Amino acid sequence: MRRSGVGWVATLVALAVVAVVAACGSIGDGVSQAPGDTVAVELAGTLSPRQAADTAEGVNAFGFELHRQVAEPAGNTVTSPLSAAVLLAMVAAGAGGATANEMVELLGLEGPRDTRYAALLADLTGQSDVTLSIANSLWAAEGYPFEEDYLAFVRDIFGATLDEVDLGAPGSAERIDDWVDERTEGLIDAIAEDLGLPDPNAVLVLLNAVYFLGTWTTTFDEADTRDAPFRLADGSWVEVPTMHRTDPEIETATGDGFTLARLPYGEDERFGMEIILPDEDVPLDDLLARLDVTSWQQSVDRLEPRTPSQLSLPRFELEWDAELTEALQALGMTSAFGGGDFTPMSPANPWLDTVVQKTYIRVDEEGTEAAAVTGGVMLESAGPPPLLVDRPFAFTVSDRQTGTILFLGSVHDPRG
Description:
Strand order of the largest sheet: 3-2-4-14-13-12
Number of domains: 2
Largest sheet: 6 strands, mixed
Oligomer: single chain
CATH architecture of the largest domain: 2-Layer Sandwich
Number of strands: 16
CATH topology of the largest domain: Antithrombin, Chain I, domain 2
Strand content: 25-35%
Mean pLDDT: 83
Low-confidence stretches: 1-36
CATH superfamily of the largest domain: Antithrombin, subunit I, domain 2
Order of helices and strands: EHHHHHEHEHEEEEEEHHEEEHEEEE
Helix content: 25-40%
C-alpha cells in the first residue's frame, strides 16, 4: 500500500492542516456551504507563544508515536502529524464517555472540545513567506441527524464546506475525489476508494487537505546536482541525483545518535525542513524506534549556525498512503472503531470505521512541494445480518411450554 520514490531522507515538514468540518443541525436538501479555508481567530482564540509551543508539543508527541506505528522497516514513510491529530480532535468533539477519554489522552487534549488546535492552526496560516493553503470538507449522508451543538462547535471553530450527498452512490465518491484533486493541486488525486466509498452505510466523511510550497532561503544550483552514492538499509550502494552546496551557512545540532540540520524557507525563515541524519553506525530504523518529541525538540533548541565544507542532499519525490486504524488502536484509541460513544455527535450514535492518510512530497533545488489528505468515515450499523437459509439445515417442531419436540428433521435438498 505504501509507495516509495527516489532516495530517502528523514524529514519533518511543518505542514499546517485543518481537519473536520461541519454544518448546522438539520441539513437542507442540496446544501453546500461556502469554503472555509481559514480558521476564524476571533472564534478559535489566540495562543501565547508558550501556549502555542505546548499545543504543538502535544501534536508532535502524537506524531512521533503514530509514525513509529506505521513506518515499515527499511521503507519510506511520510506522515502529516498535524493533519491526523486535528482530524481526530474533531471526531473527539463528538465523542463521549470512555471513547472521548481515550482520544483526549492520545492527543494530549484538555477535553473533547479543546479549541487550542484551531487556535494553533490560525497562528500557522496566513503566512506570506510560503504558500500554505488548507481546505476542509464534510460530506454528510442525506437526512442523517446530527447534534446541533456538535456541528456548531466544529463549524464555528474550524470552518468548512458541507455537502449532503448519497454516500452509497458512485457519483458522490467521484465528487470527493475531485475535491481532493483540486485542493492538493493534483498531487493527490483520490481518496474515496481508500475510505471504502461508495458505501450505503456511511453517514459522514470528514476530509482535510493541505498544499505546501516553500522555496529555500538559499537555493541549490541545479548545475551542481549530480549522481552520488547513497547507502541503502541493507548496506548496498546506489547512485541517486544529489544536490550540492559548498560552504553553506546552515544551523545544525547533534543528538543521541544523530545530527539535525535545518534548511529554512523564504526570507522570514519561519518554516524549514529538519534533516535528521543518523550517525554512521546507527541504522535509521533503530534511531526511529527511540526518537521522540523530547529528543527532537532538545536538538531543535540547540541549533547553532555552522558552515560545513559541503552540504549534499538527495533530490527526492515520495508518495505514501496508509490506513491508520490499526495504528490508532495500538496507541490506545480502541473503542471508537466499530462501537464507542458518539452520541454527542448524533443521537443515532454512528461509529468510526476507518482513518486514512495520503501524502506527497518533492524536494529539489528550488525547495519543497508537499500535500497531505486525511480522511475519516463514520458508519451507521446496517442492523443484524440477514438469516438466509440457503444451505442444508435441520429443524424441529416443539411445544414451548413443555419443551417436547414433536418433529425433528434435516433437509439436504428442499426439492424432496
